[in-house]
C-alpha cells in the first residue's frame, strides 16, 4: 500500500492470524492500487473490467455514499475521470483486518497502516492503547497523546506527503490547515471523514462536529488547534 503496516496482537498462538492479516494487506495493495498496472483499479480505469469484483463493487458503493454524506468533498473520481479509491480503501482494509483478528478470538490488538489504526482491548502492558498525534511541524514529536479505547484513529494532512488531498469542487489543495485527526468507533469512518474534512480546509472541523460518533482535532498553518466538543475525553 506504499506505507508501513503494523499488526500487534496480545496473547499466544497468533502466527497464523498475523500471516492472514498481512496477506490481506498484500491482496488489497495488488487489487486496489492505482499505481500498479495489473491492479483491478487500473484495469477499471482502462475500461478493461466490465464486471468489477464484489469487493470493488462495495468500494464503489461506499465511495458514492461518502461523496453524498460529505456534500461532495470526498470523491474518488479524479478530474481526468479515473478513479483513485486510496482515501477510502486504507480504512476499509484496516477494518477488515481487525475483524479477521477479532473473529479468531483475540480481544487485544492494534492494526495500523500509514498512521491510521484500529485498536481494541489492552496493550501488552495491560493498559489501554495509547496513540500519539504527530506534530505536523516536527514529525519526530507528538502534540497530543490519546487513549481512544476500542476505536479507530485517522489523520489526514500534507506535512509528510505534501499536497495529495484536493477539494473536488475547486480542484485545489486546501489551504490554512496542516492536519486533521478523527476518532470514531470504526476506522473506516475515521479515515474517510478525515479525508473529506481535510479537503474542506478550515471549515472541515465543523463537519466532524456535526456528525454523531465522530470527534476531531484540527491544526491550522499557524499551529493553532481546534477540537470538537467531545474530543478532550480521549486526551491523556
Can you characterise this structure?
- The protein is α+β, with helices and mostly antiparallel strands.
- The protein has 6 helices and 9 strands; from the N terminus they run βααααββββββααββ.
- The strands form 2 sheets. The chain has a 7-stranded antiparallel sheet with strand order 1-2-3-6-7-8-9.
- The longest helix has 18 residues, at 15-32.
- It is globular and about 50 Å long.
- 37% of the residues are buried.
Judging by the overall fold, what is the CATH architecture?
Roll
Main sheet record:
7 strands, antiparallel
Q: Could you estimate the helical fraction of the residues in percent? A: 25-40%
Unreliable residue stretches: none
Order of helices and strands: EHHHHEEEEEEHHEE
Multimer state = single chain
Calculate the terminal CA-CA distance, rounded to whole Å: 31 Å
Average pLDDT confidence is 92
CATH topology: T-fold
Strand order of the largest sheet: 1-2-3-6-7-8-9
Give the strand content.
15-25%
Q: Total number of β-strand segments?
A: 9
Radius of gyration: 18 Å
Q: Which shape, going by the Cα principal axes?
A: globular
CATH superfamily: ApbE-like domains
SS field, number of helical segments = 6
Give the class-level CATH name. Answer: Alpha Beta
Number of domains: 1
Structural class: alpha+beta
What's this model, at a glance?
This protein has 236 residues and is an alpha+beta fold.
Keywords:
about 35% helix, about 20% strand, globular, alpha+beta, seven-stranded antiparallel sheet, T-fold, about 240 residues, two-stranded antiparallel ribbon
Question: What's the arrangement of secondary structure elements?
Answer:
Blueprint: E1 5-9, H1 15-32, H2 40-45, H3 54-69, H4 86-103, E2 109-113, E3 116-120, E4 131-135, E5 138-146, E6 151-157, E7 177-184, H5 187-199, H6 204-210, E8 215-220, E9 225-227
Antiparallel strand pairs: 1-2, 2-3, 3-6, 4-5, 6-7, 7-8, 8-9
Helix pairs in contact: 1-4, 4-5, 5-6
Amino acid at each position: 500500500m506504499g506505507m508501513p503496516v503494523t499488526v500487534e496482537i496480545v496473547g499466544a498462538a497468533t502466527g497464523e492470524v498475523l500471516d492472514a492479516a498481512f496477506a490481506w494487506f498484500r491482496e488489497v495493495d495488488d487489487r486496489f492500487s492505482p499505481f500498479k498496472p495489473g491492479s483491478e483499479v487500473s484495469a477499471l480505469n482502462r475500461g478493461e473490467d466490465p464486471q468489477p469484483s464484489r469487493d470493488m463493487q462495495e468500494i464503489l458503493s461506499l465511495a458514492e455514499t461518502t461523496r453524498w454524506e460529505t456534500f461532495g468533498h470526498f470523491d474518488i473520481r479524479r478530474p481526468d475521470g479515473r478513479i483513485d479509491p486510496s482515501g477510502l480503501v486504507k480504512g476499509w482494509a484496516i477494518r477488515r483486518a481487525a475483524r479477521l483478528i477479532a473473529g479468531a478470538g483475540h480481544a487485544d490488538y492494534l492494526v495500523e497502516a500509514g498512521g491510521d489504526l484500529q485498536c481494541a482491548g489492552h496493550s501488552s502492558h495491560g493498559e489501554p492503547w495509547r496513540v500519539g498525534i504527530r506534530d505536523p511541524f516536527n514529525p519526530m514529536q507528538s502534540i497530543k497523546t490519546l487513549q481512544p479505547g476500542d476505536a479507530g484513529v485517522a489523520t489526514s494532512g500534507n506535512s509528510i506527503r505534501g499536497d495529495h488531498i484536493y477539494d473536488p469542487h475547486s480542484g485545489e489543495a486546501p489551504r490554512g490547515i496542516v492536519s486533521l485527526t478523527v476518532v470514531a468507533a470504526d476506522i473506516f469512518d475515521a479515515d474517510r471523514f478525515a479525508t473529506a474534512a481535510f479537503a474542506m480546509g478550515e471549515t472541515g472541523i465543523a463537519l466532524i462536529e456535526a456528525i454523531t460518533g465522530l470527534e476531531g482535532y484540527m491544526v491550522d498553518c499557524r499551529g493553532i488547534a481546534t477540537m470538537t466538543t467531545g474530543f478532550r475525553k480521549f486526551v491523556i
